[in-house]
Amino acid sequence: MPQAAGAGDPHARSAVRRVLDFLYDAAGYLAAFCVFAIFAVMIGQTVLRELGLRSGGSDDLVAWCCAASAFLAMAHTFRRGDFVRVLLLLEHLGPRARRAAELASLAAAACFCGYLAFWTSRFVYESWLFHDMSNGLIAIPLWIPQSSFVAGAALLFVAVLEELVRVAVGLTPSYVAAAEERHRRGDYSEDI
Questions:
Q1: Can you tell me the distance from the alpha carbon of 124 to that of 144, in angstroms, rounded to the nearest whole number?
Q2: 142-145: long-range contacts at Cβ-Cβ below 8 A with a sequence spacing of 24 or more?
Q3: What whole-number distance in Å separates Cα of residue 34 and Cα of residue 148?
Q4: Interhelix angle for 95-129 vs 143-168, to 10°?
């Protein structure tokens, strides 16, 4: 029986891996840009206020960028091992029990992230369907800034599913490998 295209091909998996890493990194950079945009808007607002000029709509921009930066950074942060993990129990388990606990945790996280991705998508779709407009000084369709929620939630769901599959096939989770790499370099800043 012929295999599906790329089913056993390591190059196909590496291509998928590269695409996913690109998406996670792009979302991380976009989140960082949103944080910088918050800084720029707030500094601009302060300068305009000192010059006696009005700066309408800056609160809207800051709120949208704040939410976008939080959601867009989730998958990138998760894959890099920068989410808070409570290892108190895991450190005292043997390899088989630890893998089982990791699988259970990732399965539960996948369910929660899938739920989040579904409902954020539905929420934004309804905003688009009902032509909801923002009620601040900048009047735009709400689905535009809300789309960052969908993108961030969907990317986190994919990242958690990917890690679930990695652990299920016996590989080390990316977030564990990233933490171990930091420890090899003598960097324990994330553990404090």
A1: 9
A2: 145/64, 145/67, 145/68
A3: 11
A4: 160
Could you give the 3-state DSSP secondary structure of residue 133? strand
Q: Is the distance from CB of 71 to CB of 33 less than 8 angstroms?
A: no
Which residue has tokens 């990791």?
102
| Alpha carbon distance 188, 166 (integer Å) | 25
Residue 165 CA, chain-centre distance (Å), reads 18
Task: Tell me whether residue 96 is exposed, middle or buried, using C-beta atoms within 10 angstroms of its C-beta: 0 to 12, 13 to 18, 19 or more.
Answer: exposed
> In the numeric block, which tokens belong to residue 136?
């601040």
**Among 108, 123, 134, CA closest to 71:** 123
Per-residue pLDDT of the chain (192 residues; tens, 9 = 90+): 334 444 445 545 688 889 999 999 999 999 999 999 999 999 999 999 999 888 888 889 999 999 999 999 999 999 988 777 777 787 888 889 989 999 999 999 999 999 999 999 999 999 999 999 988 888 899 999 999 999 999 999 999 999 999 999 988 888 888 877 887 887 766 665
CA proximity to 79, closest of 16, 147, 27: 27
